[in-house]
Every structure is written in C-alpha cells, then in structure tokens.
Design brief:
Blueprint: E1 3-16, E2 19-32, E3 35-40, H1 47-54, E4 62-67, E5 70-72, H2 76-79, E6 83-86, H3 98-108, H4 113-122, H5 138-150, E7 156-160, H6 168-183, E8 187-191, H7 195-201, E9 204-209, E10 212-218, H8 219-224, E11 231-236, H9 239-247, E12 253-256, E13 259-262, H10 269-278, E14 283-289, H11 293-300
Parallel strand pairs: 3-8, 3-9, 6-7, 7-8
Antiparallel strand pairs: 1-2, 1-4, 4-5, 9-10, 11-13, 11-14, 12-13
Helix pairs in contact: 3-4, 4-5
C-alpha cells in the first residue's frame, strides 16, 4: 500500500521568551493513499503544528517528512500543485466576493472561471459566490476555504478543522463532499475535534496526545484499543424472565439502562434471539453495544493514562 504522508520521529520545539515549548515530540505517522484519514487529539496535542510542518509553514526541529513521496520541505515545490490545504484560519480578502477570491487564487495556476464556479457549487455557495466575503458567516468562510483547497483538483486534501462554524446541515454536506472526493481516489487528511463526524466520515484515524501518536489504524482497530468487551443489548417486555433464560446459555448477562447486556460478540445475536424464542420470549430490540470513538478518544487521551 502506497503512503501519501510519511512522518518519522517528528519533533518541533518553539523558543519562547521564558524558555521553550515542545509542540510535537517523536511523532510517527503513515497515511495510505485513498480514503478519509482522521487526525485527532486534544487542544495542544500537536495536530496543527504537524500540519504546518507538512505543508512548509513551519520547519521541523528534527525528524523526516514525506508528502506524495517527496521530502518536506525540499520537495514541496514538486507536489504542491497536487495538494490542497486549509490550515488554521483561512486567509480571505473580505472586500472581495467569494468568486473573486477564488479567481485570484486560481490565476496563479491558470485556473479559469468554469472551475471556480464548479467548486463554489460543490461547497453550497453557488448562489452566494458574488456576495462580499465580509458578509459571509463563519461557516460560509469555511466553505469558501474548502472550495479554494479544491481548486487545483488535488490528489490529496489536508484540512485543519474544516467543520468549524458549520451547522449540522452544513456538516452533513461536508461529510458527503469528503466521502465523495475519497471515492474518486483522492486522499483526504482531516484534523477535527468533532468525533462523531470523524467516526461517520473516516476510514482510518490517528490519535495524538502530548505530541505523540498513541493510536493509529482503521476506525475499528482504534476502537478495539479501548479494551471494551464486545456485547449485545437486548430489550424485551419481561426483563426478569429474559435474564433467567439468557443466563442458562450466556453467563454474563446484566441489566443496564433499561436493557439486558449480554457480553458476547455481536455475531452471536442470532443465538441470543434463538434462546429467547425457545423460552417463549421475543426481543423488541436487539443491537450491538459499541463504544463510540469519543469514548475511546477520551480514554486514550486521559492524562493519567498517557505517558509524558
């Protein structure tokens, strides 16, 4: 599998008036080609610093980075034409329209008005492209920044908190847009703190804490790192009878918030239902009990659990 981002031993230390601040320390990361990759971590964990180093806005103190197979920063000139990025607050001209902002950016790479109009439509600004940016809401500015990142039809999109300022409907649209871009073979590398969105959008994730990567893999692989035992939740009218019936076959059965939780792999849901039917009982609800990515994130980034 080809990696479009490779980071080995990345370290970044900022010199301050009263000493130094370590933003990233010993970060290793590999992002495979294609799909949506979520880059997660608490505030101050080093996400934005890593992205700034990756696109040449900050120089690493130590370590090695490669983007689309080229070393960073030496090879950025060869790959930036294939890269779109949003880093921190997008730089936009407030006294120009959204369309004019994009046309100005596009002129650098000889991108014409047809592409500008297309990306405005893709981010839901087709009917607001001729409004001044100073009249845009925060969410609209974020959409415009995303349109700017897509102008060059890049192979990889690097997005730092693209959901900032978006309402739920806007988040849903952006989620669909990112998934659509990934389905075209592009790689979308997205930093976000909106964990429910990451869980629904991403194929793979990495979690940072104290400037280090503490978990990395598919969403399911990272979820498994939380150590939560797989289980099934069952709801039925006669809960007491359900407990008696299920414990004859499944010893680990407990009542939790109006459900019976059976501590077995969800693939055995058919066996649970068969046991209930044999006892003359019918489940009104039966579903996997799965910890959310947010649960795992909070557990893995708990300061008491993360080595300094």
């Amino acid at each position: 599998m080809t990696n479009v981002i490779e980071i080995e031993g990345l370290g970044k230390t900022y010199r301050r008036r009263r000493g130094t601040t370590v933003a990233v320390e010993g970060l290793d990361l590999a992002v495979p080609e294609g799909g949506v990759f979520g880059f997660l971590g608490p505030n101050g964990s080093g996400k934005t610093t890593t992205i700034r180093c990756l696109v040449g806005l900050a120089r690493p103190t130590r370590g090695a980075l490669r983007l689309l197979g080229r070393p960073v920063p030496e090879g950025l000139g060869e790959v930036m034409r294939r890269t779109g990025a949003i880093v921190e607050t997008p730089a936009l001209f407030p006294t120009m329209t959204g369309r004019e902002n994009l046309a100005l950016l596009g002129a650098i790479d000889r991108i014409g008005p047809r592409r500008v109009g297309k990306v405005l439509g893709m981010v839901g600004l087709g009917d607001r492209g001729d409004d001044l940016v100073k009249k845009y809401s925060l969410g609209m500015r974020q959409r415009l920044a995303l349109a700017a990142a897509m102008l060059k039809e890049p192979d990889i999109l690097i997005l730092d908190e693209p959901g900032n300022g978006l309402d739920p409907a806007g988040m849903r649209e952006v989620r669909g847009l990112l998934r659509g871009l990934a389905s075209q073979g592009r790689t979308v590398f997205v930093s976000s703190h909106i964990l429910a969105e990451i869980e629904q959008t991403c194929d793979r994730v990495a979690i940072l804490a104290n400037g280090r990567c503490i978990a990395q893999g598919t969403v399911d692989e990272v979820m498994a790192k939380g150590g939560h035992q797989a289980s099934v939740l069952v709801r039925l009218d006669d809960m007491a009878a359900g407990v008696d019936a299920l414990r004859r076959t499944f010893p680990a059965v407990e009542r939790v918030d109006g459900y019976l939780r059976v501590n077995v792999d969800p693939t055995r849901s058919v066996d649970i239902n068969r046991t209930l039917v044999a006892a003359g009982l019918w489940a009104t609800e039966l579903r996997p009990d799965r910890s959310s990515l947010e649960d795992i994130f909070l557990e893995l980034t708990n300061p008491a659990e993360v080595a300094p």
